[in-house]
């Protein structure tokens, strides 16, 4: 992990982990949070790059973390979702799902939604880690779900963009884009945007 001067590009500090860092970092209140392929999740001081705490997940971490209030959520390649305290990195809860987790968790109100390479999507209670519902979409998912208006949008490697109820996971609709969907969908002003592996950009109402 490197920190560079915004004005000059000069290196300010760097921090070495035991393997490659593929996940995007999150920065909150002067602390940088990120995962590494060495199976550890790190919290560093953003000014000096000094380690504040680290937590061993035991598996490579490719997904960016999600932060909700004083909680940070980490998805790893072994299919574990881990909730830690933001301040000390203390374990709050951890669950295991089928498949690998490459997609970042999506947080909405008091729920977190995760999608795995098994094609399963789960909604989980943030406070307890209890599964609220799960749905098998039948094809691997590498992109993070999008959540808006009590609905969950998830794209699959089979090229399907699915719309689920956030309340109970019921499948509301599906759109066949024809090519794998790897990038995460996003919503703006009531329009859902996503692109496919063949380079097409879709906008759905």
TrEMBL record:
Q: Which UniProt keywords apply?
A: Lipoprotein
Show the Pfam families listed in the entry. Answer: Beta-prop_ACSF4
Q: Does the keyword Lipoprotein apply?
A: yes
Q: Which domain of life is it from?
A: Bacteria
Matching entries from InterPro entries are given as:
PQQ_b-propeller_rpt, PQQ_rpt_dom, Quinoprotein_ADH-like_sf, WD40/YVTN_repeat-like_dom_sf
**Which SUPFAM superfamilies has this protein been placed in?**
Quinoprotein alcohol dehydrogenase-like
Taking every annotated instance into account, which residue ranges of this chain make up the domain Pyrrolo-quinoline quinone repeat?
A: 1-202
- Protein name per UniProt: Cell surface protein/ lipoprotein
Q: What is the lineage of its organism?
A: Bacteria, Pseudomonadati, Pseudomonadota, Gammaproteobacteria, Thiotrichales
